[in-house]
Amino acid sequence: MWIGLAKNQHPKGEVGVLKEIAPEIELGRCFLTIEYENEPYIGCLYVKYSAFCKQLCGLLQHHIGDTVREIGDLDVSDTF
Asked: pTM value?
């Protein structure tokens, strides 16, 4: 969802840069803020299990500043 002030760029695909993580582990959700063409967008990941939510948010925390494409290309098979 666009939360900016200028113009919604309607991003599509794996675009933008991860700027912030706001976990709500006990509720099984993690809010992500990205920036695309100087405009902020927010999204939410819903995770069924709080332990996995905590791991996922921790992993993403280490990738603030990375592009969404770089994060999507991560090999996490040995992480969880």
From this structure: 0.87
Total residues found in the chain within this entry:
80
The rounded distance, in Å, linking the Cα atoms of 29 and 57 is 9
**pLDDT (0 to 100) of residue 45:** 94
First vs last C-alpha separation in the chain: 28
Residues 6+ apart with CB under 8 A from 42: 1, 3, 31, 32, 33, 34
Per DSSP bridges, beta strands 29-36 and 17-24 are antiparallel
Contact 46, 29 (CB under 8 A): yes
Structure tokens at 5: 């002030």
Give the C-alpha separation, 68 to 35, whole Å. 10
